[in-house]
Amino acid sequence: MRKRILLICALLFALVLALGSCASVAVESIVHIEELTIAVGTSVSVEASVLPENASNPTLTFRSADEQFATVDEYGVVTGVARGHSIVVITASNDMMAFTMITVLQPVIDISLDRENLELNVNRNETLRVTLYPEYADMNTEVIFSSADESIATVDENGRVTAVAAGSTTITATVQDVDDNPLTAASEVRVIAPAPRQNAGSSSGGAITAPNRPPVMNLFPDEIVVFDNPFSSQE
């Protein structure tokens, strides 16, 4: 009888342990990124998880509050759709929520210069104007200018080209696309040397000789001699 009681107690104890091990562990918090910036056409994971790590049901669901700007799949991968803002709503199995603010930027997709060809005299300057596409791009908008031959023409950070010496060179404007690949636009620059200045009274053929002219006599009043006119009538 005593053995039977001990056996029943052991079974009850084992049952209690089993039931305890099967008790539900609730989600207490969601670990997530609060802010995320992405470019149009790119995708990034939100990378969210729950605490405690042994939560009975660690499943999370994801939803975008505004899919015209960003979408999110079941795994938390966010894709930028258009320039703007959205919020990814993260929901745990016990309806606990967390939020990630999504900012979507528009990268530059093309670049152009207002002049494909530029002609300057030595020591003159002119500024090249840059246009980025689309015009509302707000990512990777820094333009870097460079000259292929600075002994011919230089260019500053604002696109101002200065002619140095006669010859030809190329001025290039560069931006980076969303994958950090260069996008470029170029202008061919021709520098003209000024024509040599000629001294007065000289030409390429040598000195200019004045045409032959009769000598000019300068007569002063006291040097003038008046002769009688032999043909004048006699009184």
Description:
The structure is a single chain. The protein has 235 residues and is mainly beta. The protein is built from 1 helix and 20 strands. The strands form 7 sheets. The chain has a 4-stranded mixed β-sheet, with no helix packed on it. The longest helix is centred in the first third of the chain and has 20 residues. The radius of gyration is 46 Å and the shape is rod-shaped.
Give the N-terminus to C-terminus distance in angstroms.
Answer: 199 Å
Mean pLDDT, to the nearest integer, reads: 85
In which range does the helix fraction lie? Answer: under 10%
Order of strands in the sheet with the most strands? 2-9-8-5
Q: Structural class of the helices, strands and pairings?
A: mainly beta
Q: Can you count the helices?
A: 1
Radius of gyration, CA atoms, in whole angstroms: 46 Å
Largest sheet: 4 strands, mixed
Amount of beta strand: 35-45%
Q: How many DSSP E strands?
A: 20
